[in-house]
Amino acid sequence: xxxxxxxxxxxxxxxxxxxxxxxxxxxxxxxxxxxxxxxxxxxxxxxxxxxxxxxxxxxxxxxxxxxxxxxxxxxxxxxxxxxxxxxxxxxxxxxxxxxxxxxxxxxxxxxxxxxxxxxxxxxxxxxxxxxxxxxxxxxxxxxxxxxxxxxxxxxxxxxxxxxxxxxxxxxxxxxxxxxx
Amino acid sequence: xxxxxxxxxxxxxxxxxxxxxxxxxxxxxxxxxxxxxxxxxxxxxxxxxxxxxxxxxxxxxxxxxxxxxxxxxxxxxxxxxxxxxxxxxxxxxxxxxxxxxxxxxxxxxxxxxxxxxxxxxxxxxxxxxxxxxxxxxxxxxxxxxxxxxxxxxxxxxxxxxxxxxxxxxxxxxxxxxxxx
DNA sequence: TAATCAATCGAACGAACGTTCGAACCATGG
DNA sequence: CCATGGTTCGAACGTTCGTTCGATTGATTA
Lengths: 180, 180
What we know:
The structure is a homodimer.
Chain A: H1 2-8, H2 12-18, H3 22-45, H4 51-68, H5 70-78, H6 88-113, H7 119-131, H8 139-142, H9 145-158
The first copy, chain A, binds a DNA duplex through α2.
């Protein structure tokens, strides 16, 4: 709270004029964050039918938000369980919607290609891959969100032994950079 | 510190008789943890030549330790940057050794199979997949470390579109369960 | 027995934190 | 002009935290 006060130029007690408690403020930030990510994902998925491409869109969408708001995401990851009381359930509901959306993407892929893998493990592994970047991402070394999403999408979809990385004949999602 | 005092039965000041500060204690825990994981990994890798199998061993080794010490790993992940001063560099060195070992596994795989992918992205993605489990793992739902390592290894090596999950002709690492 | 020394503890210190409270400010409308 | 009410602030309160200190215990040794 004192950090926010200093960074914003508003006095400590001034903050409490707008937010009744630290927990309430964290709740508002979380709600805004997850709602924004989920809304943007839905928009981007519209009109895209190919299951692989839809998963790549999911990866880029999630990754992009995490890279743009890297420090904020770090705080949110650490403060994840700070919402002890009632409002927490609303956040949990949004997260569950997001999770189920991703499970749906996996099920679509399985149906389209006749695959059989554990959707939960796949989704949680994918979340881990992406969420962990706040501990290691460096723009100079690791490239843009598009490049990283491309590489992570390759690993997740075809694995490291596919041997197609950086070569021809590969769909990419660079056209998504011109978004609304 | 007061939590540790209560849980261990040692008085608060008694703890400071053995550990000069909270930061020092955290340093010792981190050192013990990463040294243990790295030593165990080296032992398990001995005598295994196949690059894919070596990566699967790495995944199982890391995953197993994280699941056995799940609560501890949660604390370590959150307290990751709490080591502000000098001793931090020794921990960083151990981590770097661990990281480079994993990079080596990737390079071996690339050499053996003539692949070309970004080792850093692959390793960091793999770390993310595994380290993230402390946020979602449930023994009843997600099975043993062996089962999870198998599924994560499948995803990382061949991707979700490989279609080989749960079928025949697939090497596994269940024999590793009888370890020293 | 007396002296020593490692081990353990209760009590407290100072700092940091989330939060509250009353006063001060300042633009608006009568 | 004054009164009102939204806005902002400094100062403090109570709690928690990491840490320290002096005293007490209990076994060892001269």
